[in-house]
Amino acid sequence: MSAAKQVYIAIIGAGGVGKCFLSQLEALAARRPNPRLTLCYISTSKKALYNKDYTLDASSLLQDLAASTEAPLPLPRIVEYLSGAPSKVVLVDNTSSQDVADSYPAFLSRGISIVTPNKKAFSGSYQLWQDIFAAAANSGAKVYHESSVGAGLPVISTLKDLVDTGDEVTKIEGVFSGTMSFLFNSFAPVEGSGGKWSAEVKKAKELGYTEPDPRDDLNGLDVARKLTILARLAGLPVESPTSFPVQSLIPKELESVSSGDEFLQRLPEFDSQMEETKMAAQNECKVVRFVGSIDMATKVVKVGLEKFDRSHPIAALKGSDNIISFYTKRYGSNPLIIQGAGAGGEVTAMGVTSDLLKVLSQMS
Amino acid sequence: MSAAKQVYIAIIGAGGVGKCFLSQLEALAARRPNPRLTLCYISTSKKALYNKDYTLDASSLLQDLAASTEAPLPLPRIVEYLSGAPSKVVLVDNTSSQDVADSYPAFLSRGISIVTPNKKAFSGSYQLWQDIFAAAANSGAKVYHESSVGAGLPVISTLKDLVDTGDEVTKIEGVFSGTMSFLFNSFAPVEGSGGKWSAEVKKAKELGYTEPDPRDDLNGLDVARKLTILARLAGLPVESPTSFPVQSLIPKELESVSSGDEFLQRLPEFDSQMEETKMAAQNECKVVRFVGSIDMATKVVKVGLEKFDRSHPIAALKGSDNIISFYTKRYGSNPLIIQGAGAGGEVTAMGVTSDLLKVLSQMS
After folding, report:
1. DSSP B191-233
2. Could you say which residues bind L-homoserine here (chains A, B) (predicted)?
């Protein structure tokens, strides 16, 4: 047996997902001594821990980080710092920051691999997407982002496997937002009549299923970002998440109200619109759902409300689950379907940890 | 850019899956010049192609193989031959042979990686399972077998990711046989009354959904093998596919009739038994399905008939699709579900090709 190899880990972000990832990383390092994982940098938006010899005492990491007097390094300085590490480095970006995403090409071109749930890098401009994968191809550094769609569900890896083995994806369709899933499964259930739209939105917010301002879920942009990622992986060079039709569920009149609270207060005025949509579906024995779809033949990507038969898997979804259906040449008329929780700290961190394992397995 | 690396590929088996794999391999080699894939051995049960310089002219491979006057090498000789290759080797076992499976430890211990849809190696004796993974760990050779459960569906990779990232699997449940899926979706559909049992078995055979002798599907052993593999991956050291309860759907009186045809001819005599089972479920507003399940807490693995609510995803399955539900600590009450075609040459070969890509990505 040769001595254990050493791999350095740098982490940006220690919020909900970041904390879950840290505890998964600690357990992983305890279970698998090879390669030896050494944390050499960790930061929040305000604080950082790092030092010249690239080792941190991890005994009380989060406390030490909170107590740190160091500000995070500027991104170009992090690139420099990590490039000087005595062995290979994996950067774990547990933020949703566009700035961090924009610097991926700089990290990758210096041979630093990246694993992340951050959607911004892969759903921003198509130029950034190209720069990221060109930098990785040139340096041999790896970049994995399973949790950028459906959290820990094997969505991205499955799509990549389909494409890489030569299958032809014809259509991708699904419910890509835990918030939207919860809202419509309650508002327009397969059995029973469901609640009023504004009441369901209020309930979802109280249960912590929405962003602090629910409009950040209802504008559809989160789903559009996920669709952008999947469309690009399937081979459509989608320019940006705003370059295709995305239906917003925010009434025009409430787009510019100053706060989420005011939005929620005035939302009941618009319940009749959503009720009409629900009834229109009901009259066809269907239910309404907020879905995203990619049609590869027509190159049409869209996000918005659609009607589904009550027996359709998308209609039968439960709780805040996601469902993603891949229609391909090989799978024929019955799609390959993946379903389950698509949000939450632990399952999102799991996708990141699993990506880290893939990167480690390819480090010689 | 350095010169393309070279990896040698040896293939045993050129039947339904083997032929699909060959065409996927050819397309793969054309798309990805690095590493350069060189076929150095291919055999059926009767014929083989190989030569001293480890290259085959692949221009008309299947014709050349059919015309070959060489018999396949005995397995120990194949190990020797491949060990002498001037670069790394991946063995693709596209058979369902127990003999080939039994020699995996010999291949692996010589550094030869293996990708295969062959269930026999992973669902045979627990000793063979241990020998296989010990040999791989010692030599660093890789062994992947995604298509041994659910064909190309990402079942094994998902279970491994759950376990490797530290999730706790509590239960696995599903429909693991395309034949059983088709039979019960037709015999006891969610809507309508379905056909007679013997008529459905006959129809399934005519459509090519059963083995030549349908008893090879109805005895439940195929499902038991798949459960054995998943249970072991989840951490239960199951001794063999016959070491837990497996319900056979072959009436005792027909176990020893001499042919599949005679079996099908006499099966109508036993329709009333299956009709009773269907009615018992119907009286509870349920449908009957042939499922396998693994309960990690009680360590109970079983295969047989169970009743499900009509709205349950297992009840709502279509055609000959498989469905696999992973219940875990992280995913809570709503399982992670994977669904789709679990049999067929192209999708089975896809799992093998995808495994090959994983092995190649780890070859430095």
Report:
1. SS----HHHHHHHHHHTT-S-SSTHHHHTSHHHHHHHHHHHHH
2. 211
| Domains in chain B: boundaries | 6-151+346-361, 155-341
Global ipTM: 0.96
Q: C-alpha dihedral over B201, B207, B212, B216, to 10 degrees?
A: -50
Residues of A in contact with B164 (CB under 8 A): 354, 357
The CATH number of domain A155-341, selected from 3.30.420.10, 3.40.50.1110, 3.30.360.10, 3.40.50.2300: 3.30.360.10
From CA A43, how far away is CA A354, in angstroms rounded? 21
Contact at CB, B341 and A331, closer than 8 angstroms: yes
Nearest Cα neighbor of A292 from A177, A120, A212 is: A177
Q: What is the fold, at CATH topology level, of the domain defined by B6-151+346-361?
A: Rossmann fold (3.40.50)
Distance (Å, rounded) from C-alpha B13 to C-alpha A344? Answer: 45
Whether pLDDT at B3 is above 90: no
B279-309 core/surface letters (b: 16 or more CB in 10 A; e: else): eebbeeebbbbbbbbbbbeeeebbbbbbbbe
Q: Which of A321, A334, A341 sits opposite B321 (nearest CB)?
A: A334
How confident is the model over B301-360, as pLDDT tens digits? 999 999 999 989 999 999 999 999 999 999 999 999 999 999 999 999 999 999 999 999
What pTM, to 2 d.p., does this model score?
A: 0.96
**Ligand-binding site membership of B18 (annotated):** yes
Contact A341/B336, CB-based, under 8 Å? Answer: yes
- Residue A95, annotated ligand binder? yes
B residues 257-316 closer than 8 Å to A (CB): 311, 313, 316
Of the listed B120, B142, B205, B226, which one is catalytic?
A: B226
Q: Tell if the CB–CB gap between B313 and A311 is shorter than 8 Å.
A: no
Q: Sign of the C-alpha dihedral, residues A208, A210, A213, A214?
A: negative
Predicted local confidence at residue B116, as pLDDT = 98
Q: Which of B336, B340, B362 is the closest to A361 by Cβ?
A: B362
Mean pLDDT, residues A190-215: 93
A13 is an annotated ligand-binding site residue: yes
Mean pLDDT, residues B181-188: 96
Q: Is A203 one of the annotated active-site residues of the chain? A: no
